[in-house]
Amino acid sequence: MTPQAEERKERYNAWFLNRESRKGSKFSPVTLSTYTNAANRALQELAEAEKKKIFEYDDVSELKRIFGLAKRTQAYKNPDCKRGFENYIEFLSDNGDGGEETADEENVPAPPVELNTVLYGPPGTGKTYNTVNYAVKIIDPIGYAAIDSHNEAIALYKKYERDGKIRFTTFHQSYGYEEFIEGIKPVTTENGMKYEVAAGAFKEFCDRAKFDPRSNYVFICDEINRGNVSKIFGELITLIEPTKRLGAAEETTCVLPYSREKFGVPKNVYLVGTMNTADRSLVQLDAALRRRFSFVEMMPDYTVLAGKKAGAVDIPRMLATINERISALIDREHTIGHAYFTSLNENSTVEELAAIFKNKVVPLLQEYFYDDYEAIEKVLSSDFVERKPNPFGGREIRDIKYPTDEAAFIGIYARKTDETNE
């Protein structure tokens, strides 16, 4: 340990041994050692603690954050571990070593983002991509304002993710309350199988945020409407409301069903979700959840592709034309996003454009139109649909074909709308 840590240890030992237990007697050196060693064993299990000893921490907020993480260790199952942390936190607070500790909301940066936000729109419009920007903006508004590129945003995002201030999860049909809040899970031991109450991703994240009230935390729920949100959120449907957060005017808590622990959602936890409006496998977003989130629409952004060409093909004009036709035939929520074409930034060839159509655009259109090739032909052109005679007579057979010449792609926006309606 550093000389400063050794000096804190000596002062803490003297402070602790002068305290009285509940029985009115002084604590013994054996109790002091037991509590301290138990806390240090938990720190050794935590990668975030970097193998530090407890006396190497001098900041109350940081130690509380580490204490929150320590609750998931094996060492924390020993009650002495909790006592070791709580006593040292009290020592730092009483002696001023941890600086001024306050949970006032004025100490938390207030980014121009709602506590609960869903980014929604058609596929390929950068919803998941933009969760990086939202997360960094929420945690570090000043740092975000100084960013010059998305790569810099990603670097900050990864840093805050390593620090435990960002967590990313994807909802799906099998995702439930047990994974999100808490559940009973089997644990293998030397004596066989036993069952323990385990915190889920969101509860664990909230517990960590509670011990760091001067920082903002961001929990990202990708594909939020793919899961059964009523089943996943449970009683937290109410607790995530801004007015029901811990410390808010209408602060609300609940007793969790398995651990019987009293739980609330901190004010410094931001929820950011994404929602694909074109995925027909999705159920409607739960009305109760919809009322508690702000929705930010993300549509195709042609400015991202401004001036982009593959050979002589005008990419933004081509995509805008495709989307106009999709909007007319289905709706605007099934348009195609600009992100599908960003690979042209590195390889702006007609061959790359043909690959994008073959692997991404055409399969999407086949899904949208349920393999109705006449409709696909209206969206693209006759260059993308092969017509064959029907050996049994009647209407000709249509199938997809994949042109590789730039004339076919130019033809998407150069032809008249009614050319394929003959």
Topology (elements, then pairings):
Blueprint: H1 3-17, H2 29-45, H3 60-70, H4 79-95, E1 116-121, H5 127-139, H6 141-145, H7 150-162, E2 166-170, H8 177-180, E3 182-189, E4 192-199, H9 201-210, E5 217-222, H10 229-233, H11 236-239, E6 254-255, E7 262-263, E8 269-276, H12 287-291, E9 294-297, E10 309-310, E11 313-314, H13 315-329, H14 350-368, H15 373-379, E12 385-388, E13 397-400, H16 406-414
Helix pairs in contact: 2-4, 3-4, 3-9, 5-7, 13-16
Keyword list:
422 residues, alpha/beta, five-stranded parallel sheet, 16 helices, elongated
Low-confidence stretches: 98-108
- How are helices and strands ordered from N to C? HHHHEHHHEHEEHEHHEEEHEEEHHHEEH
Q: Sum up the overall morphology in one term.
A: elongated
Cα distance, first to last residue?
83 Å
Helix content: 40-55%
Write out the strand line-up for the largest beta sheet, numbering strands in chain order.
Answer: 2-5-8-1-9
- The DSSP helix count reads 16
Number of strands: 13
Strand content: 5-15%
Task: Report the biggest beta sheet as strand number plus sense, adding barrel if it closes.
Answer: 5 strands, parallel
Quaternary organization = single chain
Rounded to the nearest angstrom, the radius of gyration is 29 Å
Descriptive report:
With 422 residues, this protein is an alpha/beta fold. It contains 16 helices and 13 strands. It has helices spanning 3-17, 29-45, 60-70, 79-95, 127-139, 141-145, 150-162, 177-180, 201-210, 229-233, 236-239, 287-291, 315-329, 350-368, 373-379, 406-414, and strands spanning 116-121, 166-170, 182-189, 192-199, 217-222, 254-255, 262-263, 269-276, 294-297, 309-310, 313-314, 385-388, 397-400. The strands form 5 sheets. It has a 5-stranded parallel β-sheet with strand order 2-5-8-1-9, sandwiched between helices. Strand 3 (182-189) and strand 4 form a beta hairpin. Helix 3 packs antiparallel against helix 9 and helix 5 (127-139) crosses helix 7. The model is unreliable at 98-108 (pLDDT under 50).
